[in-house]
Amino acid sequence: MQQAPNPQMAGFLERFLASFIDGIIVMVGFYIVMIPLALIGGGMSTLMLPADNSGTDALGIFMMLVIYLIAMVMPLLYYIYFYTKNGQTLGKKILNIKVVRPADNSYLSWGRVLLRETVGKLLSSFFFGLGYFWYFSSAERQAWHDSISDSIVVKTDSTGKILLDGPDLYPQEYVKTFLPCGCITLFYAALIFAIVMFGIAASGSESATKKAIQKSNTTEYVDKYDIAPKTPSVLDPTETK
Fold first, then answer.
1. 10 Å Cβ neighbour count for 231?
2. How many domains does the chain have?
3. Both 60 and 160 in a single domain?
């Protein structure tokens, strides 16, 4: 592959849109696989389970394990296949960007793809996605999962050829990194505060309602049977015992 010492780095929005498209593709593929499996599983349960359905719980647990396994493995297989083949998933091909090694623009090995898509993206998700927004603070425009897997995301033309003439270093924009994370943190803090206050208000309202109902029931009982409220008399000590 032609060496490109200064490739043009993909923009944050381009990367986001490509990931969004890939997520939809993986989700559609998941349902395409799962619907036939669910139908087959339903048919097998009808044929194999005894009349008293004694094995329903075990079959349900088995099907859940199969679903979780497919949900975890399918995205990994998707990224491993495309990144090792030409550096472009379907979403990245649409946006004309690709994932390569920074030293020689070669494609990633399956081990690096696995590291990037598991441990790397898990770490990037910490602190409300700080690792993703670190893209703006990196002079090489790398998110945390890019740095961990020693990869970069570059721009290409419609044929997949890397665009050159990029700058040696990009400006480090820390405000764009920390401002979104700060806003997300404040949003969730406000949401949690609102939920707590709503819970306290609802609890107080429920308690007040119960007291009002109890008082109302007591009043209705007294009125119905014409019972006067009994008050202790200071003259009769037995009434205070």
1. 7
2. 2
3. yes
